[in-house]
């Protein structure tokens, strides 16, 4: 699992696996989820801090659950 936040652009990127993305789905204007054969591969959130998605309060728990 990899979590990257870009403060200059207020973009949060969460990568759950390195599997290829076969389908992208927008959930609202600022959340995009990339799906692979086995499920969610990545999530991209625009205006992450402005919308309250960053900082992630349970980042350590998410990372442990993904491994």
Furnish the topology, listing elements before pairings.
Blueprint: E1 2-6, E2 11-15, E3 23-26, E4 31-36, E5 39-46, H1 59-66
Antiparallel strand pairs: 1-2, 2-5, 3-4, 4-5
Question: What is the average per-residue confidence, as pLDDT, rounded to a whole number?
Answer: 90
Helix content: 10-25%
Question: Low-confidence spans: pLDDT under 50, at least 5 residues?
Answer: none
C-alpha Rg (nearest Å): 12 Å
Spatial ordering of strands, largest sheet: 1-2-5-4-3
Count the beta strands.
5
The major β-sheet equals: 5 strands, antiparallel
Q: Quickly give the structural class.
A: mainly beta
State the helix count: 1
Tell me the fraction of residues in β-strands, as a range. 35-45%
Describe the protein.
This protein is mostly beta strands. It has one domain (2-66). It is built from one helix and five strands; from the N terminus they run E-E-E-E-E-H. Strands 1-2-5-4-3 form a five-stranded antiparallel sheet, with no helix packed on it. A hairpin with a 4-residue loop joins strand 1 (2-6) and strand 2. The longest helix has 8 residues, at 59-66. It is globular, with a radius of gyration of 12 Å.
């Amino acid at each position: 699992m990899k979590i990257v936040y870009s403060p200059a652009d207020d973009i949060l990127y969460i990568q759950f696996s390195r599997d290829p993305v076969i389908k992208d789905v927008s959930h609202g204007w600022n959340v995009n989820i990339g799906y692979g054969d086995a499920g969610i591969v990545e999530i991209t959130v625009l205006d992450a801090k402005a919308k309250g998605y960053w900082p992630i309060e349970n980042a350590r728990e998410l990372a442990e659950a993904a491994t």
